[in-house]
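Folding Query — how this chain folds
Tokens — whole-number codes for backbone shape
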Amino acid sequence: MSLTEFQSIRDYFSKQTVQRPDVKLGIGDDCALLSVPENKVLAVSVDIMVSGVHFPEQTAAEDIGYKSLAVSLSDLASMGAEPAWVTLAITTPAMDEAWLTDYCRGFFSLADAYGVQLVGGDTTHGPLTITTHVGGYVARHQALRRTGAKPGDLVFVTGTIGEAGLGLKIKQKHLELPPQYQHLSARLIERLNRPTPRVEIGQALLGIATSAIDVSDGVAADLNHILEASGVGARLEVQQLPVSECFSTVFEQVGGWAQPLAAGDDYELLFTASEESKNELHQMAAEYNCAITCIGQIEQQPGLRCYIDSTLLELESMGYEHFK
């Protein structure tokens, strides 16, 4: 059954668990009214997800709902911000009740987990496209940025890299895991559909990381963003990348080390920090039950150099890029 725009707002988006005190006026007016806590600054980010580009067309609505918020929360995490609110715009061919029910289940499960309130948005008719605009708070002068990496800093990444890329290949039927790893297919697809925004670790890195970004387009591409913003270079030790346990079995099939270097959609945190912080980061990894791996070092000479042992690896692609 198809709904009108205002029925969908009333029946699906106005009903939510989180009610934040800093939201003075939420859904139902021309604008939301929000207050910023004293000594904090507002961190905002917007993401667009297009069917067939950012997720396969047959992706379940519940997974789309979850991921559409997760990718934006990852942006806040990369700057050490506390998530607070979100606006949501949905372009869809039809306001289908079953689809909206499932979408909202995924979206609000994550919003509830991080205390995020939906405060407004828009709906319109057209090809399926989801736009999320998130806001969060971070102490003045404390936000993690892409600038700040210095020669001698080490390069770290959270979690594992390349699993979402493997999941996409499985979904597209471009990859079939060996029989002994078939049971991991569902987990890899889950990594694609439901990335974990590293919000808690992002906040814990305040005062420790010298620069940070989330891995959305690929390790090589996103590290290069840090290098360009900071005016430095880096040596990346490719074999130190934390990859999936089944990666070695499909190494050649997926393009070797180019896969975890260039595959996007991991939404892990990539950051730099001083060598003296290694023990503190080790404790942080244990506290949050999330691996934090050193994969390289910042150098004075500009540019990214990826090495396997002592051999320089030539990359055909740094990562995903729109309009390329």
Observations:
- Residues 61-78 form the longest helix (18 residues).
